[in-house]
Amino acid sequence: MEGFMCKTPAIADIVILVDGSWSIGRINFRLVRTFLENLVRAFSVDFDKTRIGLAQYSGDPRIEWHLNTHSSKEAVIEAVKNLPYKGGNTLTGLALTFILENSFKPESGSRPGVPKIGILITDGKSQDDVIPPAQSLKDAGIELFAIGVKNADENELKAIASPPEETHVYNVADFSVMSDIVEGLTKGVCDRVDQLDKQIKDSLAPPRDLVIADITARSFRVTWTHATGQVEKYRVVYYPASGGQPEEKVVQGTDNSVELNYLNSLTEYQVAVFAIYRSSASQALRGSATTLALPSVNNLELHDITHSTMRVRWRAAIGATGYMILYAPLTEGESADEKEVKVADSVNEVELEGLSPDTEYTVTVYAMYGEEASDPMTSQETTLPLIPARNLRFSEVDHSSARLTWESASRLVRGYRVMYVKTNGVQTTEVDVGKVTTYLLKNLTSLTEYTVGVFAIYDEGEAEAVTESFTTKVVPDPLDLKSSDITAESFRVSWQHPALVDSNVNTYKITGLSPDSEYEVLLAAIYANEIESDEVILVENTEVGFIFCLSKTTNKHHNDEHLLCFQRTVPPAQNSIVLQPLLSDTEYKITLIPVYPEGDGPVASQVGRTLPLSAPKNLRVSEEWYNRFRISWDVPPSPTMGYRVVYQPLSAPGPALETFVGEDVNTMLIVNLLSGTEYSVKVIASYTTGSSEALSGRAKTLYLGVTNLSTYQVRMTSVCAQWQTHRHASAYRAVIQPLQKQEIRLGAGSNLHCFSNLKPNTEYKISVYAQLQDGTEGPAATATVKTCEAPTKPPATTPLPTIPAAKEVCRAAKADLVFLVDGSWSIGDDNFLKIIRFLYSTVGALDRIGPDGTQVAIAQFSDDARTEFKLNSYTNKERLLDAVNKISYKGGNTKTGRAIQHVKENIFTAEGGVRRGIPNVLVVLTDGRSQDDVNKVSKEMQMEGYIVFAIGFADADYGELVSIASKPSDRHVFFVDDLDAFQKIEEKLVTFVCEAATATCPSVPMSGILFVLVFLGFRMMELFGLVEDRYNSIYGVSMVPGTFNAFPSFHLHSNALLAQPTRFIHPEGLPSDYTISLLFRLLHDTPEEPFALWEILNKNNEPLAGVILDNGGKTLTFFNNDYKGDFQTVTFEGPEIKKLFFGSFHKLHVAISKTSAKVFVDCKMVSERSINAAGNITTEGLEVLGRMVRSRGNKDNSATFQLQNFDIVCSTSWASRDKCCELPGLRKEAECPALPKACTCTQDSKGPPGPPGVPVSHTHTHSNPIQLH
């Protein structure tokens, strides 16, 4: 029997929301598909008739197809038959919001003025709130029908559905009887579509009485009478009647007037006003108006005119956005170049500079209105001639020089030129003196007349000269010649300089003269030009001298041992002399004999003694420290050459240390000493004739060492030590020996440390050293301790199998797997053995171990993390399991955040063995809440694509486990009461881990929407090395700004040709469904010939898959090999495709499924082509960027273009979810994540609470019972 067919001519947009949670099951989901087929058959489905879209949800919703995806009933039914089962939780509220934001949108095929229907099918109660999302849909004019099956909550269905419940709520006891409600549902939907269509058409009245007033050159006001009905907004569209791009303004439905600004002057505009209702728009109310001419400037005035500038002033024009000034000299010949000045609208006066002197200029001013100019206003004026210098004067005139002074001509003078000449001569001298008003003329001839001219120099040229004359003076003689310091052999002459002598010498000592003789001195002044003055004469006599005799006495009667006589002449006023060098502590006899011209005078004698070699006195010690002290002493009365300082520890044998200091030093800081040690110190004075006796003393350094060292928590393989801290220590060094020496450096606040990995029943010596900031280390404090004996019998546990068999689900697993194990004190020895057994069993479930399969690493953590072994440590299962059994218990506190950071920085590294393109999986096991922050590093791990599982037991915090693990939590978080219950989760954990390790695509975060989502896919920019810290090592690539300054873009030059082995990027090949996402732009030098943005080649350089741009033909082509091995291509063209070739950044999505290839340009779907399902690719080849199509032979060439983003996402839904937040023209801040380095609020930043909402009342009704047979 034929089913019900909806015959109404009204059309609708129907979106079906299907529950795909685990509770439905695959068998029941087949019945859901049958129900959907029958539902679709009841409607006339076509592109211009009823459209049907479908979304499926569980933990997260997804679009299966949009309203505009299929244009026939047969295509929709075929899509229903192939609808995949999703699986997951039941979050109905999230799904309702999802279809409001994604399905009922114009870009998804939703049409204005067409009834909107939403149909929900669910089998259980939602795990989130459904009432606000359902109300949002109703508020948006969407009629909701709710169908419940089996365990659905009827009250929840009624809360979701639109009234009345009798026709909008359906509930059946089982999936097998869903077919019984198809006819009732389709009739209800059909009737409601008909009713809604009539309501929409009755409510769309246009506005009336269009009035255009307040017309100016750049604007006018549009006013209208309100349309009837619930108008939400008015849309005003306007454009030039002669043709041009339409523009629009949108105002609220309560407004009936708007001013249109920034119009062109003297232009007729067409205006249309539309009333916008909730889901449609009215017909237009139309009219036209012509703008006025632009106002020009008034009262143009030229003033403050100089030889090179003039000021222009005018009265401002109302509404002008700026002014343009044009000026040029008036010449009889060819017209001179016209110059232009533009100023802002706030400026009505400007100075024109760089004008030619004594020149007439014409000046024209325009008022600017955007790019338009008003009528001009013009005036003429002439610049002034150049102003000469004034008032030339002379001063400081002598025989060879004179100073010139003049007054400045103008502030615009660039400098002056001085020209002078002998009045009766012909040779002229010129000097450029700069911007000064005084200058000294030198090297002139005495008693000569000179004529001087001064020229003012401007940028524009030279002014006329100002001239005057002067005469130089006679050459002057030296002054005041006199003698002084007269001796028997010499005397000094001195004088005063005459003016302008170029010398600073005014005295001279004449030596080598004879005693008691008369001498005549002649002195003349010599000037710079070698002119000499007349001579001045002085007559002077020398004096007499003395003979000194010095002898060393040999006995108390002063008999002479040796006699030394020498003659020394001194002035009569001198009465002392120093005799040196002499012997210390020795008596000498001194004899003085005067010498006269007539002979020797009477003799005078005296006996004296030199001082002994005195030692320093009063040794003092100060500034005692752990490695130094200072000594000071009093210096002896006799002058010394310096001091020897000798010091040595009293308790340590060995040579003494010695240093020498200068004669002016009486204190010294002795450093690099032993702490707590007494030293002997000696200070010895050094003289030219020997050394003094030693000044001796003692000094002691402070003690640098810890005290009260003791041990505690002594176990089989570990022991702890504690001590009393030293008040000045900046660090401690703790050492345990004699077996395997362990050494660690601890901070200043540390007073304990625990050593692990020790041998049972073994005696150890623990030493602790205190250290200062400068590295000085004190003596060791030591303690001995013996570890506990091992138990005589091992714990009663089931023997571990030698090599466990691999589980089937893990046969194809290929991942880098890290276990991070809690080894804190709260675990205990017995429980740690259970953790080891769990690790042994879990790792044993894997199949291939090593680079060709799964690599395994294990780290243990407490206060810090310890890598037990790295990913590349073992390549077979037997050795790996043996290493697991040998892991020893660590002990300590619980610092999970630090441990996860350790794994990220030290294990998931190239040195640690991590591989490219392979899933990175982390399994964290812990029994308690972390004592540090785990949120930041966990978020980083998830954002960077790591798959994280969290296993908690005993006192673990479930909320913390959720923040550590990847999403969804029901797949990545496990919790058991104790370690004995590990077996309950082991099977499920192994399955989930191996499924993650088997995935063709790794996890990658995608940030094209407000909330960052983790998708499976490939970050192609990173895989090709196009990131900030790696691009500079790639030939032919440079980094330039992208769509925003915060986003880098990479310029691929013609010699780049980037290539990577396919086995590194896609080691498992391409997935069956995927989206190629590229953000790029073509450049002016991008070749016209076709090139591949990206393509995969086999080892013979033959193309397997890729995307080709034809810059000449403006087309886009995708190609691959289908499942039969046939080469297939699909080409896209049209206006939206042509945008890619206009030189701007564009975002391109190519979504490839088993049946079609869809192209999205700037997050808008523009075309779809049918294709066959793809076959897989070979990994024995290359993936390349920018390869020219014509270089299919042996020689490859590359195209020039810029690339900002490139991802391959293992899903076809990403293109419809991406918001193109990287494109400035499409970016909506409310829907996009913050730009890099932007200041944003976090989810923890909470504002004040809002007002309380209106209470919601629930009406309980019952739907018709279903009879079961």
From TrEMBL:
Residues 13-185, 816-989 form the VWFA domain. Residues 1243-1269 are annotated as: Disordered. It is found in: Secreted, Extracellular space, Extracellular matrix. Transmembrane segments: none annotated. Residues 206-296, 297-387, 388-477, 615-705 form the Fibronectin type-III domain. It comes from the Eukaryota. It holds the Pfam family VWA. GO terms for cellular component: collagen trimer; extracellular space; interstitial matrix. Keywords: Collagen, Extracellular matrix, Glycoprotein, Hydroxylation, Repeat, Secreted, Signal. The keyword Glycoprotein applies. Belongs to the fibril-associated collagens with interrupted helices (FACIT) family. This is Collagen type XIV alpha 1 chain. It comes from Oryzias sinensis (Chinese medaka). The gene is COL14A1.
